[in-house]
Design goal:
This protein has 7 helices and 23 strands. It has 389 residues and is α+β, with helices and mostly antiparallel strands.
Length: 389
């Protein structure tokens, strides 16, 4: 408590002079004037507390620890594109039958749908013509070689027939490739060549093992080669993709282990590995797309589930105080330092974001200062009550 003695002395001297001039001065004059001029300057950040409250406080010094922050990135579960296939028709045609439904497990070669197509019919007809011509030109060339040996025909005739055979074989190869492009396998092509009977339909088949997670076609629908009819994916692993702010992307590395939390499946924390960090920044959101590979053998994670990606910073030494040591008022953080027996002083500090119940100290506090580690909230409440008195 600070008292302005100079003001009080002036008041007392004035009162004595008045006493000499007047025989009957009012007895209360001196007390009233003194009360009006006496002021106190109380330090609102200082507090002396009761002994019983001191016993409830824990005093210590700031800690210097290895700190590793966790970056929380909102994310989404996606299919592993390396284990996914979009399957469609190779020809324009009409779907006449369906063999699978959503959720079915398929293997490579499993029939998914059956399609009829005029393009397929024309390609099979071109293949049969080329096949027949190869047979004819092969026989003609063989006969020419026999006649040349008997000196019946000239060499030029043999060469001409050889050229016709080579052209027929090239046409045969092109027709075979066209059928393969339309989805016919070697067994079906051999059967076509053996029987010479055009197949009226073609089966759309799975190209990889997995579950049918998308089916965009029904019987009777006319489809184009550009239409995605089925999506088959292996869900034994999935991607979790999130956008990391560019300010902290320097702490994100390939093959870094991260923690994944998916609220839809409970509080369980899954482990994943960063497999991709984009080389570009989204100009609108100022973020960098990051992809994590997560094991999903039990198929609990489903595409488009919301998730949280926790990326752990590399450890670094930092001066910290417990969260319980901090009080906040008007957007300013404070801690209480010990100034004497049962006396404490509230001082402003600059702290970083909370990490594992600790606040990194940026400025305002030294490692050797004694502070209230626990119970700062109760101490601040006592300080506010004293301020009101």
């Amino acid at each position: 408590m600070k008292i302005r003695l100079l003001t009080i002395s002036g008041v007392v001297i004035t009162a004595l002079l008045l006493d000499g001039c007047y025989k009957h001065p009012p007895a209360s004059v001196s007390k009233e004037v003194s009360a009006n001029y006496i002021t106190e300057e109380r330090d609102i950040n200082s507090i002396t507390v009761r002994r019983e409250l001191v016993d409830r406080l824990k005093v210590g010094t700031p800690l210097f620890v290895d700190l590793a922050d966790k970056i929380l990135v909102p994310s989404r579960v996606q299919v592993d594109e390396e284990r996914t296939a979009q399957i469609g028709s190779y020809v324009t045609g009409r779907i006449v039958d369906m063999f699978v439904k959503l959720g079915d497990y398929v293997k490579p070669g499993t029939r998914l749908a059956r399609i009829t197509s005029p393009e397929l019919t024309q390609s099979q007809l071109a293949f049969l013509r080329a096949s027949s011509r190869v047979v004819v030109t092969q026989k003609s060339y063989d006969r020419a070689k026999y006649l040349l040996a008997a000196d019946v025909i000239a060499l030029a005739e043999v060469e001409r027939r050889q050229s016709e055979l080579e052209i027929a074989q090239a046409e045969m190869s092109a027709a075979t490739d066209q059928l393969r492009l339309y989805g016919m396998d070697d067994a079906e092509i051999k059967e076509l060549a053996r029987k010479g009977k055009i197949l009226p339909w073609l089966d759309v088949k799975a190209t990889r093992e997995g579950f049918v997670i998308s089916r965009n076609v029904i019987v009777g629908q006319v489809v184009q080669p550009s239409d995605p009819l089925f999506q088959v994916t292996d869900l034994s692993s999935v991607w979790v993709t999130g956008d990391v702010p560019e300010q902290i992307v320097r702490d994100v590395k390939l093959n870094q282990q991260v923690e994944i939390n998916v609220p839809a499946i409970g509080e369980a924390h899954l482990r994943g590995r960063i497999i991709f960090v984009s080389d570009t920044v989204n100009r609108l959101t100022r973020t960098v797309m990051t992809r994590v590979l997560v094991d999903n053998q039990d198929r609990k994670l489903k595409p488009d589930m919301l998730a949280n990606m926790h990326i752990t910073d590399p450890q670094h030494k930092s001066l910290v105080v417990p969260e319980a040591a901090v009080v906040r008022e008007l957007n300013q953080d404070y801690v209480f330092t010990v100034t004497g027996e049962r006396r404490f002083q509230r001082i402003p500090v600059e702290l970083g974001p909370e990490v594992a119940n600790f606040r990194p100290v940026l400025s305002g506090l030294a490692i050797d200062q004694h502070i209230v580690m626990e119970g700062a909230f109760h101490l601040d409440s006592e300080r506010k009550l004293a301020e009101l008195e």
